Amino acid sequence: MNQTKFVVAGAVVLLGAIVFSGQSSGPAPSANDTASASVGGTLRIGVGSGEPAYYKTDGVTKGFDYQMARSVAEGMGVDPEFVEMEFRQLYPALRSGKIDMIGAQVTKTPEGEREFDFSTPYFVTYVSFLAAEGSSIRSRRDVDGKNVAVVDGTIHERFLEEQYEDVNIIRARDAAAAVGSLGRGEVDAFFYGAPYAASILKRAPIRLAQPIVYQAEEAPIAFVVREGDPRKERIDRVIEDMVVNGEWLKIKTDYFEADPLSEVFREKGV
Q1: Statement to judge: residues 111 and 188 lie in one domain
Q2: Nearest by Cα to 190 from 145, 146, 153
């Protein structure tokens, strides 16, 4: 049986949203330079739709990434505008200027930094394996030799390639498609972002076992802006202020109370 490796090399994205629908809206006025950002404007934030990152309950928008992005925009003195879209649409929308920032559990990686600018981290990645109830997969070492689904375009494919030598990776359009493959017996497990596991268990058409969760300590989550965007420094300062003044910890506790505090934030004094 192969041992897992905990060295997480780069990839483009992580833990995208659980996507079932949603299209991007047209361009809207935004604060496109430091001067306009300082006096107001709109920060258009690309998001996916999935609990606990960004979701709505009885018409009220909630979510960890929603709360963080909204607080960042307010700290910058601009109005946040959230634009829901499919995960695969986020980077093209950022490139074309349809949105100003991505706030969808994206991992900061060397590959991504070749084209985009990433903020200081506002979370650290947790990943998980999901399997049908009664499955023989009871630990992450049990996936050796198995068919494992990932959402196409996320970092999870890269994780599996680096950490497991004997896994057959099956790409799915989104989380719903991956769970459907589990139900039909086409795959043995689904590898995805741990923050979304509870929501998947609740909505899955089949009974799933409790997720197998572990932390990818070297995979920090950050906001993404276009390369050279002067607002990055303001975004970084607001995040750092939120960590120092306790606002970050309050938001983290609201959505991830059970998750241990990463060393990344202990070092910042949380």
Answers
A1: no
A2: 146
The answer to whether the beta carbons of residues 85 and 48 sit under 8 Å apart is yes
What is the Cα–Cα distance from 177 to 189, expressed in whole angstroms?
12
74, part of any domain:
yes
Amino acid 33: pLDDT = 41
**Read out DSSP for 7-46?**
-----S--S----S---PPPP-----SHHHHHH--EEEEE
Q: Which domain holds residue 151?
A: 127-216
Model pTM score = 0.68
Question: Residue 218: is its pLDDT beyond 90?
Answer: no
In a shared domain, residues 194 and 227: no
In whole angstroms, what is the distance from residue 156 CA to residue 19 CA?
Answer: 16
Q: Are residues 132 and 208 in the same domain?
A: yes
Residue 10 resides in a domain: no
**CA atoms of 193 and 210, how far apart (whole Å):** 14
Region 175-183 average pLDDT: 94
**Alpha-carbon span 260 to 270, nearest angstrom:** 12
Task: State how far the Cα of 142 lies from the Cα of 192, in Å rounded to an integer.
Answer: 16
Amino acid letter for position 95:
R
| Greatest Cα pair distance in the chain | 59
Q: Please say if the pLDDT value at position 70 is more than 60.
A: yes
Is there a contact between 148 and 214 (Cβ–Cβ < 8 Å)?
Answer: no
Say which amino acid occupies 35. A
Are 139 and 213 in contact by the 8 Å Cβ rule? The answer is no
Residue 230 tokens read as 């002067």
Confidence bin at 163 (pLDDT 50/70/90): confident
In a domain, 225, yes or no: yes
Q: How many domains does the chain have?
A: 2
Q: Which two tokens stand for residue 263?
A: 């060393």
Element (H, E) at 183: helix 175-183
